[in-house]
Amino acid sequence: MREIHVSHHFAAPPETVFAAIADHERFLTMGSIRCRLQREGTPERNGIGAVRQVEGDGLRFVEHITAFDAPRHYEYVIRSLARSNGAALPLRHERGWLDFTRDANGTRVDWHSRVHATIPLLGPLLIEPLVARKLQRAFSALLSHAAARMIATPL
Q1: Is the separation of the CB atoms in 2 and 114 below 8 Å?
Q2: What CA–CA distance (Å, rounded) separates 99 from 89?
Q3: The whole model's pTM is what?
Q4: What does the pLDDT read at residue 122?
Q5: Distance of CA 51 to CAs 10, 13, 54, 57, 104, Å?
Q6: Coil, helix or strand at residue 122
Q7: Rounded to whole angstroms, what are the CA distances from 85 to 33, 58, 63, 93, 123?
Q8: What is the pLDDT along the chain (155 residues), one digit of tens a residue?
Q9: Where are the domains of the chain?
Q10: φ/ψ (deg, to 5) at 94
Q11: Does the 2-152 domain belong in CATH 3.60.40.10?
């Protein structure tokens, strides 16, 4: 099992940052990545029970929001992870979560995700480190893009 962690600072209060990042369709759409909400959650559209489909770079994820505590925290789990052609990938997602912490200059967002390669021996040695690096880069890019978008078009 591999845990990925990325931290990013936003020069805005947690309420603003949480609202921007919890808007799954907008937040998870960047470059070739697209997100579509398949089912709305509660108490907000993107809250608990929401199901989102993320596609890009030849992959398709179906994610379920499992915890939602605005403006402090939300969690998700990837229930389906496959190539765009439908072929399953040898990975299991255990949990992903984002924490939003107020500080003197705005908000720190900490994004964690845990993945496990299901192929014995090669999975932990080769696949997990590769996936961790790619996810770390993707999470950083999404958070940086969200910060730039917030500066360009404040909520």
Answers
A1: yes
A2: 28
A3: 0.93
A4: 84
A5: 26, 27, 10, 20, 34
A6: helix
A7: 16, 8, 18, 20, 22
A8: 999 999 999 999 999 999 999 999 999 999 899 999 999 999 999 999 999 999 988 899 999 999 999 999 999 999 999 998 989 989 999 999 999 999 999 999 999 999 999 998 888 898 999 989 999 999 999 999 999 988 876 55
A9: 2-152
A10: -85, -40
A11: no
Instruction: Decide: 65 and 75 in contact? Cβ < 8 Å.
Output: yes
Q: What confidence score (pLDDT) does residue 154 get?
A: 59
CB contact set of 15 (below 8 Å; sequence gap of 6+): 70, 71
Which residues contact residue 60 at a Cβ distance below 8 angstroms, ignoring those fewer than 6 apart?
A: 53, 54, 80, 81, 82, 83, 84
**49 contacts: CB under 8 Å, gap ≥ 6:** 39, 40, 41, 42, 64, 65
